[in-house]
Every structure is written in C-alpha cells, then in structure tokens.
Write a structure and sequence with these properties.
The chain is α+β, with helices and mostly antiparallel strands. It has 13 helices and 13 strands. Among the domains are: 158 residues, no CATH class; 65 residues, no CATH class. Helix 6 packs across helix 7 and helix 7 packs across helix 8. This is Winged helix DNA-binding domain-containing protein. It comes from Actinomadura coerulea.
C-alpha cells in the first residue's frame, strides 16, 4: 500500500533538503547546487537566502563565487533569472530551450517581422565583441532590423541566446544595469547539446521533493516533467498526499517526519522555495497564498515559524538604524515572536553591518 504523507511531513522533508532545519557549513557553490538554483530576479535575495541556510555565510563568499565563475546568474527555470552553478547551467540550459521558445508567444503582435534565424546570429555577432547591456543590444539590433519592435528583439535574445550576467564589485554583486556575456565565452564552453530533463527531475526531487509531476512543471516551466518522471519511475519511490495525488521521490532522500522542530527563518523576496510546487501548502496555507505576490508580480519575503510561512516582512535603513517589520498573517504566539525577533536581529546585522541600532517590530 502506498504511504500517504501529511502536509507537515512534506514540510519537514522539503525543509531538510532546503537547509532550513539547520544551517549547514558547506561552500556557497555546493549549497546553490543542492538547491538546484535560486531565483534571482533581483541580485540581493540570493545573498539573504544563503545567509538563512548556511553557517557563517559572508556576502563576500557569494561575490567570490560569481567572479571565479563557479556560479552564474542567467535565465533558466520559468524563463526567470536564477543563480545556478556553472556546471548546472551547462548541463540544463538546453533542457530549458523548449520552454523559452514558448515564452516568445507573450510578444503577440510585437513579434511581427521577427526572424530568429537572422536575429540570433546577429546578436551573437554583437556579443562576440564583448559584454553588452540590453539597452545596447536592442539599439544595435534595431539598426539591423528597423522594422521589428525593439522590445521583441531584446526579449528574443534574452530567451534564445545563452547568456550570463557579468558580475561587478557592487554590494550585491551586480550593477543596476547589468552587462550580459555569451555563456560559451564566459564559461569557456556552451551548453551541452543533450536535453538532460531526466537528470534535472532527479535534481529537483533532491531539492524540493517529494513532489508531483505538476509540482515539477510549476518549478521548471517545462511541459515534459510528467514524461520524465514516468521514465524514472522504476528508480523512484512513490507516495500520495492527503488529497490522493501521486508524489515522486528519491529512495534515500531525507524524510525526517512531521514532529521534528523547525527553527524561525526569514526567506527573501522571490525565494524559490515558495514557488517550487503547484500545491504550496507544505510552505504556505492556501488562504495566505494571495498575500505572497503583489499586483506587479513581486514575490514577497516571508518568515517561517514551525516550518510554515506565517507572514511577510520588509526592512528599512535610515540614519544608521536598521528596522525589520514583520506582518503576520495571524496573531503569533509569544514564543514565535521571541524566536523570530532573535533571528531577525541577526539578519539585520548581516544586511546592514554599519547600523548603530537594530529594531524589530511586529505589526497588525
């Protein structure tokens, strides 16, 4: 008989893989690899996401990994920017291309006259001279394709040319207007030709399992996840959730049980954990999920207590005072406020090391 896993059991299993039951003392690149990437729509969130997961993490650790090119920031899962290891980018970028090609549909009428067979080589030729910003790429391509919408030209390059963002010495690793380089130039080799979707699914389960085919599709944006998991079925364990849905997992992956403690933790904006499943109840209750995303599609930062998202948070830094404001979804127990305040103060010291004062508040 197939074992049924409760929401709490799924919560603890996923937190164990996400290094959120206890901080781990491992190198930054290894951590990003274990997470199978971190969403990085903005440069700052991965720094906070690693701080909350790693023992003794320093911002310079991530900066060094970006500059030695063991980590890259590039378009990957769900056609969004991710921080991934260079090895994973090389291995899995080709698997992303069908999804990225499909993403061009959002251009609608703006794609009139867009010929990828001409635009992609033209963009590569421009970038072979050195890294460029997208403002520069669009302007140069517009000179060659004056009858094509400039935004369509830029979007096509973003999705169809393997590129990585060039890090800088800015505090969070990248300039406000970043330059992009050809991946094969930056890394010394381009993406592998093989569509390694099966291996990607194994890595997804290692980082986010147990999970359904729909969960894997939500995380990756790929439509082929179900087929891949079927091919892998003989080597996987299967479970069901409380609604009878089939879940796949690696046989030896950690599933610590639902009764273990989970410490207070702060997740940054866009953290992959809150986006990695179709059914997100293992992290955030359905009734709280609408609070997760703003009208302009920003994914809010959340705090965890007893393993689950209990509210959103934001910070402010003025006159050397670093302030953390927590906004719970519901009233928090006194123990939760105490644990979260301690963790929050530590996070503020990481974020604003020059602050003379840290303040943590819980708002209604």
């Amino acid at each position: 008989m197939t074992e049924t896993l409760s929401v709490r059991a799924l919560n603890r299993a996923t937190l164990a893989r996400q290094m959120l039951l206890a901080r781990e003392a491992i190198p930054v690149s290894e951590a990003v690899g274990r997470l199978c990437g971190m969403q990085a729509q903005e440069p700052k969130p991965p720094f906070l996401g690693l701080w909350t997961r790693l023992e003794g993490f320093q911002a310079s650790d991530l900066g060094s990994a970006l500059h030695d090119r063991s980590l890259v920031r590039a378009t990957m899962m769900r056609a969004t920017l991710h921080l991934v290891t260079s090895a994973d980018y090389t291995a899995f970028r080709t698997a992303m291309q069908p999804m990225l090609d499909g993403g061009l549909r959002v251009l609608g009428d703006r794609a009139k006259g867009l010929d990828l067979e001409k635009v992609v080589p033209a963009a590569r030729s421009l970038l072979e001279t050195g890294p460029l910003t997208f403002n520069e790429i669009r302007a140069l391509l517009q000179q060659q394709f004056p009858d094509v919408n400039d935004r369509a030209l830029g979007y096509a390059v973003r999705l169809c040319v393997p590129l990585v963002m060039v890090p800088t010495e800015d505090r969070w690793g990248f300039a406000r207007t970043s330059r992009f380089a050809l991946a094969d130039t930056w890394l010394g080799s381009g993406p592998n030709a093989e569509n390694a979707v099966d291996e990607l699914m194994l890595r997804y389960l290692a980082a986010y399992g147990p999970a359904s085919a729909a969960d894997a599709q939500t995380w990756s944006g790929l439509s082929s996840t179900g087929e891949a998991l079927e091919r892998l079925r003989p080597s996987l364990r299967t479970f069901t959730d409380d609604k009878g849905r089939e879940l796949f997992d690696l046989p030896d992956a950690p599933r610590p049980g639902e009764d273990g403690p989970a410490p207070a933790r702060f997740l940054p904006e866009f953290d992959s954990l809150v986006l990695a499943h179709a059914d997100r109840r293992r992290i955030i209750a359905d009734e709280h999920r609408p609070m997760l995303t703003t009208k302009n599609l920003r994914v809010r930062a959340v705090f965890l207590w007893d393993g689950f998202a209990r509210g959103i948070w934001e910070t402010e830094y003025k006159r050397k005072v670093a302030t953390l404001r927590m906004r719970p979804f519901e009233a928090l127990p006194r123990t939760a406020v105490k644990e979260l305040s301690t963790e929050g103060e530590a996070m503020l010291r990481f974020m604003e090391p020059d602050a003379k004062e840290t303040v943590v508040t819980v708002e209604d």
